[in-house]
Automatic annotation (TrEMBL):
Gene3D superfamilies: 1.20.1280.50
InterPro entries documented for this protein: F-box-like_dom_sf, F-box_dom
UniProt domain F-box: residue ranges: 1-46
Pfam families assigned to the protein according to its UniProt record, in alphabetical order: F-box-like (PF12937)
Transmembrane portions of the chain: none
Provenance organism: Apiospora hydei
This protein's name: F-box domain-containing protein
């Protein structure tokens, strides 16, 4: 009976491309040639959590084959009843995030899997979700991190990743809209300055409120830009000096944009931040004057804008209301002088807040 080993090498390698990751691992154990060829595919992406056994296994893999890794995917997990621990992040996961063994891993993804949507259970146990009810200063953030493991885990995960000098592409799923002590470190700010591409998907569960503006602690971090304040703009975006591509995906329960009473302004996109940005994609956002001002501030560099999954509330010119219709938005962008460098504009979606 013909065997796989009898096929021409090129044909065998073509067959390998159809195998699942698990099957590639099994096949790689059958002979040295297959192991050598499949190592690149097997160890291309390293996925791990803060569970000790998982992190230790992943660390052993990258110590042996980390030169093949081009992407790290980390999912920190915490529950409402987790006891505080020092450190909150186990050393193996921290070492993986640091990039010490993965010199070619230019992409990193973090997804904070905290089940925060189970608000009643967390709140009943006093597990720190009052963070979304009240705004915080730096001392209060540090105190919460000492008290609640999930807050400490967020900060320590960012601190570990900030030591990674290889990552240029960052994806954050379920970005917790609260500050962390790690955000104020020089290591973290230098990490942000090295990034060229970033995708931020902001968490927004039922506890935020049906229209996303109920809890002050959630809202203020997203729009705060005052000097010395804690916010998406001051903690993160302002330090991304070399970023060329940015995607911000707001939550369905927390549309960003507009400056009225019932909106979360897009002030985080300040006209003087992100000076190298060439491409911007927004999801679940409202077009408004703060976005126009950001485009004006980047007229000479921004070449691509995707607002297909955004919405408009129409023209509202009452006190404090600055939502715009699509017509007004496009007219104001068109009137910017000198003319914007946009060569790609994607719009026309049917998204509604």
């Amino acid at each position: 009976m013909p065997s796989l080993a009898q096929l021409p090498r090129e044909l065998s390698f073509q067959v390998f491309s159809y195998l699942t990751h698990r099957d590639k691992v099994r096949l790689s154990a059958t002979c040295h040639e297959y192991h050598t060829h499949l190592a690149t595919a097997i160890f291309k992406t390293i996925r791990f959590t803060n569970e000790e056994a998982v992190a230790q296994s992943a660390l052993a893999a990258v110590k042996a084959y980390g030169q093949h890794t081009t992407r790290l995917e980390f999912t920190p997990v915490a529950w409402w009843n987790d006891e505080p621990a020092v450190p909150a992040l186990n050393p193996a996961a921290a070492e993986l995030l640091s990039g010490r063994h993965t010199p070619n891993a230019r992409a990193a993804q973090m997804r904070f899997a905290f089940d925060l949507n189970n608000f009643e259970e967390w709140d009943e146990m006093g597990a720190g979700l009052d963070a979304f009810t009240y705004s915080e200063n730096a001392d209060q953030v540090a105190a919460k991190e000492r008290k609640w493991k999930w807050r400490a885990l967020v900060s320590e995960s960012w601190a570990a990743l900030s030591e990674n000098e290889h990552v240029r592409d960052l994806t954050v799923n379920e970005l917790i809209p609260k500050s962390a002590s790690a955000f104020r470190s020089s290591f973290f700010r230098r990490f942000l300055a090295r990034l060229e591409s970033a995708t931020l998907r902001i968490w927004g569960g039922d506890c935020v409120g049906s229209s996303g503006h109920v809890f002050t602690g959630y809202v203020e971090w997203l729009w705060n830009t005052r000097e010395g304040s804690l916010g998406l703009g001051t903690d993160i975006l302002r330090h991304m000096r070399n970023l060329k591509q940015l995607e911000i995906h707001a939550a369905d329960t927390g549309f960003l944009g507009g400056t009225g009473t019932h909106n979360i302004p897009l002030y985080a996109l300040a006209p003087d931040s992100l000076p190298a940005l060439q491409s911007l994609t927004l999801t679940n956002c409202l077009v408004g004057r703060e976005l126009v001002e950001f485009i004006r501030g980047h007229a000479g560099v921004l070449t691509s804008l995707n607002v297909a999954d955004c919405a408009s509330l129409g023209d509202m010119d009452g006190p404090g209301e600055h939502s715009q219709s699509w017509v007004t938005f496009f007219d104001e962008v068109h009137s910017i002088k000198p003319a914007v460098a946009l060569t790609e504009l994607v719009a026309g979606g049917t998204k509604a807040p």
